[in-house]
Specification:
Elements (H helix, E strand, L loop, with lengths): L1 H9 L11 H5 L1 H13 L4 H16 L2 H8 L3 H6 L1 H19 L4 H9 L10 E2 L4 E5 L10 E2 H6 L7 E5 L4 E2 L15 H4 L15 H21 L10 H22 L3 H12 L1 H9 L5 H15 L79 H11 L4 H9 L4 H13 L1 H10 L3 H16 L2 H11 L1 H14 L2 E3 L11 E3 L4 H4 L4 H11 L2 H9 L1 H12 L7 E2 L12 H21 L8 H21 L10 E2 L4 H15 L12 H22 L8 H11 L8 H14 L2 H11 L19 H20 L8 H15 L4 H7 L15 H10 E4 L13 E4 L1 H7 L2 H7 L3 H17 L31 H15 L7 H16 L14 H4 L10 H4 L4 E9 L3 H4 L8 H12 L5 H16 L11 H5 L8 E10 L1 H13 L14 H4 L11 H15 L1 H12 L12 H39 L24 E2 L6 E2 L7 E10 L28 H15 L2 H7 L7 E12 H13 L13 E2 L6 E2 L1 E4 L5 H8 L6 H13 L13 H16 L14 H22 ...
Antiparallel strand pairs: 1-5, 2-3, 2-4, 6-7, 8-9, 10-11, 12-13, 14-15, 16-17, 16-20, 18-19, 21-22, 21-23, 23-24, 24-25, 25-28, 26-27
């Protein structure tokens, strides 16, 4: 079929088979050139036809592919090479033709030369790293690519780096989006002027070829598309088609990159309608093309919002089965009608769940335009391309192509219009998509480029009705998931809300559309159009009402809810994104007087929508009980626009307020939310699960609060300021269900609340009133004041980091409104209220970040508990703020006790809201306050200090906000007589405070104590009669009062007076039948608020008559009332402050206070104490004593615990450690005693029950990282800087060993060096001991413990049972008595020769060890097992160096090297020398002594053949012939002078039976020192030149016969030189050595220094060893005297040595045999070696040690330098850029974290590298996260970051993208932990990595 089709298209061309003919292929260039020439002629019709024919032929070669893809056998056909080849061919043709016969690359270059690009326009996809500079941005969406950013100058700007989420494009050069000052160097010049005009013939061919090419692509897309079947998702097919089209789309994309000239050609092609028409209609009889056209029509059919078949006539329609139909009202006679949504959108809405009533959707009159509804019609290639892009769900390549074209202005406009035209279609596709996330990102990637540009947005709004389309589309989208609202009246509700459980809301599918809407509303011109268009506002309010009352919560009263729904996330997100953010966008344009009209419009339609809502849910006056919704967006719109109107637009508030009835309705639901918050915090909703707490927290959380709780409280404040105050107050207490509690009686019944909830609900109600009355956020505070108050509140709760403050301060939540946190005022306010605390470091402590903490004056004057309560998400934060406040007062000496929250002066109210203060001056509130004060005084149940605090706060608020003057100051004395209607005479708090209330009638249960007493009526009925009425008007009338008021208001406001209010009280307020009968009692009170306050003062202070009016002493107080002493304090202070204010406000009050204080209460007579009372008193006393005892015990326990923690946990200060008696401690004890930390017994370690030290064994390569130069290694940040580890200690030792092994006998080589520089085993202990059998059972219990530990018990890991330090083995303590070791230490006067013999004999005696190995004891078993552990700690490659695998020499070498490793590391921990002296850092923590025992035991299993024992060569002269013998057959032994002396020392000592005698030790050291000294001479002689040598040889020879010749370095040096001159060591220098000639002449001083430096490393290690073996302290000294101090400490210096004249190191020499003989013997060995290998002979000489301390790599100051180099660096294995690049901080290697490409035998690269580089310890910097990760063996942990921003904070994952700078202290801490091997102890959060890092 394909062939036929092609032939049909081909028409008169040569027959088909000729097409792929090789001839034609070769001729491409020629053909192209010919055609180009033909087309260049003036009459080019023939050329054009020829070209068309060719294209027809070439491009239809691609047909087979699509024909096959069409059928089922797509895969099979695609598999053949055919179609692929044909496509290649076609692309080749196109390239050739475009270039017109020239080379394609030259053509590209030529076109690029004409690029006038003033815009960058680089398009990127998700995860790209880009920059945003707020200082330069006009639109908040502005972004720059890294190159443009770094080329521009943004120093000091507010910028950050970010990872793009949805992709984006660089805006550099676009002055609509950013300021020109921020353009980079390339895009600064408006370069269009000097670019030459494009020559016509350059792009001529493109104009002919490209239309065909694009049409061909479209044909493809048409054919590949199959309308998905109902249930089968078609993604797979779509992706297949897209893969096949990859090369074509890439080709187009490359064209766009050729610059402006080519882009304008493409724009012409894409937008030219004629071209499109010709090509698409001229299909003729081609069957294939016809078929694709049909497919296109089918695809088009479903593109409108209505199906074309379902065209409706004026909204009359038959409901189709199974789907809910939306009946549509023809609006204003609109011809445009809404049809049924296409049924695939309604898959899961069966009739039962559909809409109860058909929702009438009013569509705005603007939608007369049919186009939004209708099927799309395409007029150009661009339109159809976008159509298919949407159909195929936005393939990335297509998106990039379409965006790459945007720098072309003409294209940009055309494309934006096309995008808007397809908007509804995008929404439909998005809703059906299975990959809605990816698709959302791609949509936004496009739309943000189009709609951020104000000019463009305005143009499209005017020409294409953008706003109508957006609002309609949003409305449509939400309509697919509506359900009936169950709020209020479940049966009859007509309201519908979105169903938050639907995928559409749950997955946030709507966000691309909402985000576009917010984006365009940020442009003033667009927002104005929106606010002026009444139809649009109606539609929008309609949309908002879908969210009003969503996610309704019903309180569970019986069972706990089975399934906790998490839909509330979706609900809060939807309200914030779909309602609040557009609202903030609109509000940002209503800032000035001229915009009053807009506010009026919004408010008008908002109120209409609210009225409709109240009608729909059938709301009258009472909210339904036990349900709450947190979502009232209509209320919040209304509130926010009111606030703006008053604050910015100077509108008169009353002109936009509705009538009283509406206000009463408006306040109900927000008030319901406030009461529900209190209920939730009182645990009344506990059966609804945790999610309800989540909702309560989200509602006040910083990102939501200013769109939720703030508008709600503001709306309530507005209602309160306009409604009757008594009505409002009684409503509040009724909503909070505490009306019944407000009675004077000591007992009461609450019909709606359990007793346990009463207290917290009462606290809630009062706190709410305090917040309502003192919050000024919308009532007159300026923006800066608000910011300051918010900041102070957050800082008072806790110290905060800069970023968390930015996050916690509620800013305008609309990100596109241009109000950005971190703007200028934020920083200035922050510096005014807070001090910066720089990050501190406790070693071993947690990493601190830079914190801000409130200044003292803020605590003093600005701490505002009300604001804190409003903003706390967790109740504990309020407590935390109070604790911090208390601490401040104690510290500054302002108040010692427990203070109460301070009372803070408020900003003055805006005049519009003055009515709010009437709440404080209404009788209802005064009755409540009076009652509560009385109850508190009488100690009734369920009252708390908090209640009192709030009551006093309200009284104080009332006094602060009272009317200026009391009019009835004098004549109100005779008050009580005249008022019969209620408790108080007037409504002014000031005068009501002094009003006495004598009797009150209360209703109490019969059981109450009040009933039992004789009623006072009989005695004082006269006084009663006058007050009778006021008595009965007790607070119980709250409810009745409210009803009455409500009725009045309704009757006044409603025109039909006959409207009845349904009484709903019957069910709610009647007491349950079981309750006891209520009866009336009359209480005698005789108090006023003032007298209650004074009595309260007495009660609080615990003294009678404690209150004395301060003004009697100091009349000044009344004149200057602001007295600082009253600012802070407890309840007593508060009462005094209130009384003072009351006295100030009126003379009457002052007089009455004095009077009350004068009536001194008589001293109370001592009560008779009854026996029962005495018993209780005794009990009290006893309790008190017990409590004191307990306190004392606890304190003692705490201090003990503290001291333990200090000693046990502090890794770095061993000075104050628990003394652990290890066998080196006290001489008088006969045997070392150990405590077992598991069983607690103490005793010696014995053969059958050995004790062990808790140790951690770890392999370490720290030593190997020492380098010999002081210049620190830097982390490479360019390609040139690479690190080669050839100069590390490990590398040098490796080279030396392999060199020795080449020329000498293997077994002898393995004794001449130490290993363990890499992968050496380091042993450390916490110093605690345990019985080994106890440890085994402890491990068993750990193994059975199911708790997840951070360590692996199977690998023997555990934590020390006492101090919880990490460990993995137990080192047995060798049973030994201290006395014995003291005997050993007594100096004997044997000569050195005798000692040498003893040493030799002892070494020769195998197994002369107190524990005989043959008899297996527990101890020896344990020693063996620990040896096994030590071996297994490190990898095999770090143990096996012998040429014969498994030879015993290997083990021998390994064992003494373990000792060497531990000694060297300890030296490093001490800073590389022993100047500090003192006990070892490891003092009690050192396990070297035990370790030596274990090693020695195992070393002695291998006796060295006495023939080869190096000891012989050191102490005896061997006969001549011996040394020469056997040289021929086998390799010689290593010459003594090539031996490493420290290794020899360890071998000699470990070969001796333990414990070792001190004089033997000294003997060994003396002998080895002679060898070391000789090595120094040899090294020195090689260093200097020929003349120096001969000079020395000469001077030394002269003194050779002096008496102390053997101790004179000159003599010895000259002898060494003369001996070595016999060999070839000094030969062939002439040439090379010139370079090495040292310029300095050697003076005796410099030589002495050289010799000392050469010997020091050995002396240091030896002294440490002596210190550990014999427990002697190390002396401390200056650096320059280190040598002499150590040598005398080791016994090298003769005792009689005088120290006056300069110290000479040679005087330490003590030769066992004549010096000259032994030296010449040693030199002979070397001479015989250099005979053959002079070069190597020199290289192998022992050089002076020059290792510096190990360091990590030096990091650059600024993190960006690391990031820019490494985040784009490709992996060396797979050459891709790794997803998680990391770099090793030890050696600088670049690795992929978790990268599968670099996996080797299931080990990922980081783990592998940690084994190779650090023997299992790796320190990696994760490039994309700026965090350091530590790998230790099989575990890893996140260590933290060493880069902090300007505010001292980490930026993990670079989320904030602020510039980061190195923190040197942190890096030092990291390095310290690495060197001291304490990662395991200090970092707490370890987890297994399963080799996957």
């Amino acid at each position: 079929m394909a062939a036929a089709a092609a032939a049909a298209v081909g028409g008169p061309q040569p027959p088909q088979p000729e097409l792929p003919a090789p001839g034609l292929a070769l001729d491409k260039a020629a053909t192209a050139a010919h055609l180009k020439a033909a087309l260049s002629r003036p009459d080019n019709r023939a050329g054009a036809e020829e070209l068309q024919a060719l294209l027809e032929r070439v491009l239809s070669a691609e047909r087979p592919l699509t024909a096959a893809a069409d059928g089922e056998e797509a895969a099979a056909a695609g598999g053949g090479g055919g179609p692929g080849a044909a496509e290649e061919e076609a692309l080749e043709w196109c390239k050739c033709l475009l270039a017109g016969g020239g080379g394609y690359d030259e053509f590209c270059a030529a076109v690029r030369a004409y690029d006038p690009a003033a815009l960058c326009g680089l398009v990127w996809t998700a995860n790209f790293v880009a920059y945003r500079c707020r200082t330069c941005g006009i639109s908040p969406c502005m972004s720059l690519c890294a190159e443009c950013f770094h080329q521009g100058d943004h120093t000091g700007h507010d910028f950050n780096m970010f990872r793009s989420q949805a992709g984006g494009a660089c805006d550099c050069g676009d002055s609509n989006v950013m300021r020109e000052s921020g353009f980079c160097k390339r895009h600064q010049i408006k370069s269009s002027s000097n670019i030459p005009c494009v020559p016509k013939d350059l792009l001529m061919m493109s104009e002919f070829v490209l239309p065909r090419f694009i049409f061909c692509l479209i044909q493809y897309l048409r054919e590949g598309y199959n309308e998905p079947a109902a249930d089968v998702p078609s993604e797979k097919d779509l992706n297949k088609v897209l893969q096949l089209l990859e090369p074509q789309i890439s080709f187009l994309e490359d064209l766009t990159k050729m610059g402006g000239a080519m882009r304008s050609v493409l724009t012409q092609v894409l937008t030219n309608q004629q071209n499109y028409k010709d090509l698409t209609s001229g299909l003729g009889e081609n069957a294939c093309a016809k078929k694709s056209h049909e497919k296109y029509l089918i695809a088009l059919k479903s593109s409108g919002l209505t199906y074309p078949e379902d065209k409706l006539v004026y909204g009359i329609q038959e409901p189709s089965a199974g789907t809910s139909t939306l009946a549509v009202q023809g609006f204003a006679g609109a011809t445009g009608t809404l049809g049924q949504l296409d049924s695939s959108d309604e898959e899961d809405q069966d009739g039962s769940q559909g809409l109860g009533k058909r929702k009438r959707v009013k569509l705005s009159s603007g939608t007369k335009d049919q186009s939004i509804m209708d099927v799309l019609k395409h007029k150009s290639f661009l339109e159809e391309l976008l159509f298919w892009t949407i159909k195929y769900e936005f393939p990335q390549k297509m998106v990039t192509f379409l965006l790459n074209m945007l720098p072309d202005q003409e294209y940009k406009v055309a494309f934006t219009k096309t995008f808007v035209q397809h908007y509804a279609f995008i929404m439909k596709t998005l809703k059906k998509s299975h990959e809605s996330d990816t698709m959302s990102n791609r949509i936004v990637h496009i739309s943000v480029q189009l709609f951020s540009n104000e000019e463009l947005a305005r143009q499209v709004t005017e020409e294409c009705q953008l706003l109508d389309i957006m609002v309609t589309v949003l409305l449509y989208m939400m309509e697919s998931c509506l359900i009936k609202s169950e709020l209020q009246d479940e049966e009859n509700s007509l309201h519908v809300v979105v169903n938050c459980g639907e995928a559409l809301l749950k997955n946030n599918t709507y966000w691309p559309l909402v985000s576009d809407f917010i984006n365009i509303l940020s442009h003033q011109s667009v927002a104005k159009r929106f606010l002026e268009d009444h139809g649009l506002l109606v539609t929008w309010m309609n949309f908002v009402s879908f969210f009003q009352g969503m996610n309704l919560n019903k309180r569970e009263l019986n069972e706990h809810v089975e399934f906790e729904s998490q839909t509330y996330y979706a609900a809060f997100a939807a309200e914030l994104e779909a309602c609040a953010q557009p609202m903030w966008g609109l509000l940002s344009h209503c800032k000035v007087r001229e915009t009053q009209e807009y506010t009026r419009n919004v408010v008008r339609y908002c109120l209409e929508a609210l009225q409709d809502w109240f009608d729909a849910i059938n709301f009258v006056d009472e909210p339904a009980p036990n349900q709450v919704t947190f979502h009232l967006p209509l209320h919040r719109y209304y509130a926010m626009f009111l606030s703006k109107a008053v604050k910015c637009q100077e509108l008169d508030l009353d002109s936009v307020l509705p009538d009283q009835e509406m206000l009463m309705k408006l306040m109900i639901h927000p008030l319901q939310i406030q009461a529900s918050l209190a209920e939730i915090h009182s645990n009344m909703w506990v059966r609804n699960g945790l999610q309800i707490k989540g909702q309560a927290m989200t509602y006040v959380q910083s990102h939501f609060c200013n769109s939720m709780i703030d508008p709600d409280i503001y709306l309530l404040q507005v209602c309160a300021s306009r409604l009757d105050p008594d009505y409002f107050i009684s409503s509040v207490f009724e909503r909070f269900k505490v009306v019944d509690l407000l009675t004077m009686a000591s007992q009461h019944q609450n019909t709606v609340l359990d007793a346990e909830h009463e207290r917290s609900m009462l606290e809630g109600a009062l706190t709410f009133l305090v917040i309502l009355l003192s919050l000024r956020l919308h009532l007159g505070m300026s923006d800066d004041e608000i910011l300051r108050a918010e900041m102070v509140a957050q800082l008072c709760m806790n110290d905060r980091t800069h970023s968390s403050l930015l996050d916690l301060i509620p800013e305008n939540p609309n990100p596109k409104s241009g109000i950005i946190p971190g703007s200028y005022s934020f920083e200035s306010v922050l510096s005014a209220v807070a001090d910066f605390k720089a990050p501190v470091f406790e070693p071993g402590g947690s990493m601190q970040q830079g914190m801000y903490t409130p200044k003292a004056e803020v605590w003093d004057q600005e701490f505002d508990p009300v604001m804190v309560i409003l903003r706390t998400v967790y109740r504990r934060d309020v407590q935390s703020a109070m604790d911090r406040y208390t601490a401040f007062l104690k510290q500054s000496g302002k108040f010692p006790g427990n203070p109460w929250p301070p009372y803070k002066k408020r900003t003055p109210l805006h005049p519009s809201y003055k009515g709010l203060m009437r709440l404080l001056h209404c009788k209802t509130l005064h009755i409540v306050l009076f009652t509560l004060l009385y109850k508190i005084l009488m100690d009734h149940q369920n009252l708390s200090e908090h209640v009192l605090c709030m009551v006093l706060y309200l009284i104080e608020l009332g006094l602060e906000n009272s009317a200026e003057e009391e009019s009835d100051e004098e004549d109100s004395v005779c008050g009580p007589e005249r008022c019969h209607d209620s408790w108080f005479p007037g409504s002014n708090l000031v005068s009501n405070m002094r009003h006495f209330i004598n009797y009150v009638r209360v209703r109490v249960p019969e059981t109450a104590p009040e009933v039992k007493r004789d009623s006072p009526a009989s005695t004082s009925s006269d006084s009663l009669s006058s007050l009778h009425n006021s008595g009965t008007a007790q607070v119980f009338s709250l409810v009745a009062e409210r009803r009455k008021k409500f009725q009045e208001i309704i009757n006044r406001s409603s025109s039909e007076a006959n409207q009845v209010v349904r009484p709903k009280t019957s069910s709610k307020w009647s007491a349950p039948g079981s309750a006891p009968q209520l009866t009336t009692a009359i209480l005698e009170i005789k108090e006023s608020i003032l007298s209650l306050l004074i009595k309260l003062h007495h009660k609080l202070s615990g003294k009678q008559n404690s209150y004395y009016p301060p003004w009697l002493d100091d009349i000044e107080i009344l004149i200057q009332p602001e007295i600082p002493k009253y600012n802070h304090g407890d309840g007593i202070t508060a009462v005094e402050r209130i009384l003072l204010k009351a006295a100030l406000q009126s003379r009457m009050n002052k007089r009455i206070i004095e009077e009350i204080c004068r009536k001194v209460t008589p001293p109370v007579p001592p009560k008779k104490v009854t026996a029962a009372e005495k018993k209780t008193l005794d009990k009290e006393e006893r309790r008190q004593k017990a409590r004191e005892r307990q306190q004392k015990l606890l304190a003692e326990f705490a201090s003990r615990q503290k001291s333990f923690m200090e000693t046990a946990m502090d890794v770095d200060s061993p000075e104050n450690d628990i003394p652990m008696e290890i066998a080196t401690a006290e001489p008088q004890v006969s045997e070392a005693v150990y405590d077992c930390v598991i069983c607690g017994q103490s005793g010696p370690s014995s053969e059958d029950r050995p004790t062990g030290l808790v140790v951690l064994l770890q392999a370490s390569s720290v030593l190997g990282q020492c380098r010999d130069n002081i210049e620190p290694k830097k982390l490479p940040i360019t390609e040139e800087e690479q690190i080669y580890p050839w100069d590390t200690c490990a590398a040098v030792h490796d080279v030396r060993l392999s060199l020795l092994q080449r020329y000498f006998k293997d077994s002898s080589c393995l004794l001449a060096v130490s290993i363990g520089w890499e992968g050496g085993v380091y042993v450390q202990t916490c110093g605690h001991t345990l019985h080994i059998d106890c440890h085994k059972s402890y491990m068993e219990s750990l193994r059975n413990d199911q708790v997840l530990q951070g360590f692996s018990v199977d690998k023997g890991e555990f934590t020390c049972p006492l101090c919880r330090q990490f460990a993995n083995s137990v080192l047995p303590c060798y049973p030994g008595s201290n006395v014995e070791s003291n005997l050993w230490q007594r100096p004997t006067n044997k000569s050195i020769q005798d000692l040498i013999k003893e040493v030799e004999e002892l070494q020769g005696r195998p197994g002369a060890f107190p524990v005989s190995i043959s008899s297996e004891t527990n101890l020896s078993k344990e020693m063996e097992s620990v040896m096994k552990d030590i071996k297994n700690t490190t990898q095999k490659k770090y143990r096996d160096y012998s040429k014969t695998p498994g030879s015993p020499d290997n083990d021998f070498l390994f064992m003494y090297s373990v000792a060497r490793t531990n000694l060297e590391l300890e030296l490093i921990h001490r800073g590389g020398n022993l100047c500090s002296g003192g006990a070892s850092t490891a003092g009690k923590r050192s396990c070297l002594n035990q370790l030596f025992h274990v090693l020695a035991l195992h070393m002695r299993l291998y006796s060295i053949d006495s023939e080869y024992n190096p000891w012989r060569k050191l102490t005896q002269l061997v006969e001549e012939m011996n040394s020469q013998r056997g040289n021929e057959e086998q390799q010689p032994e290593v010459p003594v002078l090539y031996h490493d002396v420290t290794s020899l020392l360890l071998i000699q000592i470990l070969m001796m039976p333990q414990p070792l005698r001190k004089d033997h030790f000294t003997c060994i050291v003396k002998v080895l020192f002679t060898l070391l000294y000789t090595q120094a001479f040899v090294a020195l002689s090689v260093k200097c030149n020929e003349e120096d040598r001969s000079a020395w040889k000469h001077t030394g020879a002269l003194k050779k016969n002096a008496c102390d010749a053997e101790k004179s370095y000159e003599v010895l040096l000259s002898f060494v030189i003369s001996e070595l001159s016999k060999g070839k060591l000094y030969h062939e220098e002439g040439t090379q050595e010139c370079a090495m000639v040292s310029p300095v002449a050697w003076s005796p001083e410099s030589m002495e220094k050289y010799l000392q430096d050469f010997c020091l490393p050995f002396l240091r290690i030896t002294s440490l060893l002596q210190h550990h073996l014999f427990g002697e302290d190390l002396p401390s000294c200056q650096e320059e005297e280190e040598f002499s101090v150590l040598s005398s400490c080791l016994g090298l210096l003769p005792a009689f040595y005088q120290t006056e004249h300069p110290f000479i190191s040679a005087s330490c020499l003590d030769w066992p045999v004549p010096a000259f003989d032994i030296i010449s013997q040693w030199c002979l060995e070397i001479n015989s070696f250099t005979e053959r290998h002079a070069e190597q002979g020199k290289a192998l000489l022992i050089q002076e040690s020059r290792w510096k301390l190990p360091h990590l790599l030096q990091l650059p100051e600024n993190y960006n330098t690391i990031f820019q180099y490494y985040h784009r660096k490709t992996c060396s294995v797979c050459t891709k850029v790794p997803k998680d690049p990391a770099v090793c901080l030890v050696c600088g290697t670049f690795v992929c974290l978790k990268g599968l490409c670099c996996k080797q035998q299931s080990y990922c690269e980081c783990v592998l590298h940690s084994q190779n580089c650090g023997a299992g310890t790796g320190i990696f910097l994760l490039i994309n996260a700026s965090v350091i990760i530590i790998i230790r063996g099989h575990r890893f942990c996140l260590w933290g970051s060493v880069y902090l921003d300007a505010h001292g904070e980490e930026d993990r994952d670079l989320r904030r993208g602020k510039p980061l700078y190195i923190c040197k202290e942190r890096y030092k801490v990291l390095e310290q932990q690495w060197i001291s091997h304490t990662f395991d102890h200090i970092n707490k959060r370890w987890g297994p990595h399963y080799n996957g890092l």
